Amino acid sequence: MDTINKIGRRKTSVARIYMTPGNGKITVNNQAIEVYFPFDLHQIVVKQPLALVGVEGNYDVQINVDGGGIKGQAEAARMAISRALCEFDAAHRGPLKKEGFLTRDPRMVERKKPGRRKARRRFQFSKR
Predict the structure, then answer these.
(1) 22, 84 Cβ separation under 8 angstroms
(2) Collapsing DSSP states into helix, strand and coil, what is residue 1?
(3) Which of 4, 19, 32, 55 is in the most buried spot, having the most CB atoms within 10 Å?
(4) Cα distance between residue 58 and residue 73, in whole Å
(5) Other CB atoms closer than 10 Å to residue 121's CB: what's the count?
(6) Does the pTM of the predicted model rise above 0.85?
(7) What CATH fold (topology level) applies to the domain 4-99?
(8) DSSP secondary-structure letter at 112?
(9) Which letter does DSSP use for residue 127 in this model?
(10) DSSP line for 55-96
(11) What is the tens place of the pLDDT at every residue in 50-75?
């Protein structure tokens, strides 16, 4: 089978992945996943779809992430991997959808409004 190319998004992060059958090597922006995501929690988030369907070690994944923070990048990669797994085998769709890995999280940062300090925070009121 050839390479599967998928995209995942979260907040302002975009993850593009290339998944091929292999021995489980995961690289993020041409670095090992342990180097790019030094915290175990983010590594677990990226590997969650593979562990859920029981195919850890069966696919090589190359991830290119851009924008946002480290947590958003990890969750965008999780979504892209989930989409690629569905294309490899349609039987994986049920468990991944049940866990919510195929649903784009629509929450974004609210824009700053005029006359306010932040999106909703008002300037401090001084009576005197």
Answers:
(1) no
(2) coil
(3) 19
(4) 23
(5) 10
(6) yes
(7) Ribosomal Protein S5; domain 2 (3.30.230)
(8) P
(9) -
(10) -TTSEEEEEEEESS-HHHHHHHHHHHHHHHHHHH-GGGHHHH
(11) 999 999 999 999 999 999 999 999 99
